[in-house]
């Protein structure tokens, strides 16, 4: 079957091990088995006009954000203090604003303009509305669910049989205070059985070594097991629950690789790859639009303990047209 969007060279950078549903994303090297693995960057996935539309819409949302009615929910990422209030837990089908820790003083007052205080906007920017529901944001929906290039990429990759999109957000990475995001993998937060999470991260501004570009640990998806998942706690809030691991995970060694990129570039992130970003110490913001895909039943089971849960009124949004399923998943065999 002819490829629709990706080049054969890009396809050759992707290898699937079907037994573990492991996506191996790599730079070009000599052989499949001996490569050092990192991530795939697809340049100019969105053109300049499309990128500007999302960037300008993000800034408009910040301008329109009502800080007076906001509960001052900050986006925190530590194991012991990860964000988990109701404002966060009920955000999957809404557009909500999460503040930088350093933008709020002990009395709950902002120490800078609201536009420069928000860590991210999420988590339902891309939602495809049912007939009885309003459209949350047509600009992000168009870039995600109505994007023919994205559908073609999904068909070319064949990583999912029937993918759905979830957890869409704009990460602003504010100048000077844009918080560090520690080492993590995405399957911890969007756990499925078997693991199927795949991140789509689109730069809306230039991403550099000083404003918090992403870094990845090559090979970590093969040597670092998923040992915990981020869940809703029965007592309320969120926390991490340990997962049974059949064997002791190997300690991944090596140096992180920085992936600088330009506006419109798409970074594909396998759910098991360890990645992080440093604090933004520059005078420039680092806006990015990101969402995830997982496989839907019966091909994968989305855990009911996950922090983000679909609702009857607003289920996760299918990527492919009704009735279309990827009939073959690429394997290394």
TrEMBL record:
<protein>
    <recommendedName>
        <fullName>Phytanoyl-CoA dioxygenase</fullName>
    </recommendedName>
</protein>
<keyword id="KW-0479">Metal-binding</keyword>
<comment type="similarity">
    <text>Belongs to the PhyH family.</text>
</comment>
<dbReference type="GO" id="GO:0046872">
    <property type="term" value="F:metal ion binding"/>
</dbReference>
<keyword id="KW-0408">Iron</keyword>
<dbReference type="InterPro" id="IPR008775">
    <property type="entry name" value="Phytyl_CoA_dOase-like"/>
</dbReference>
<dbReference type="Pfam" id="PF05721">
    <property type="entry name" value="PhyH"/>
</dbReference>
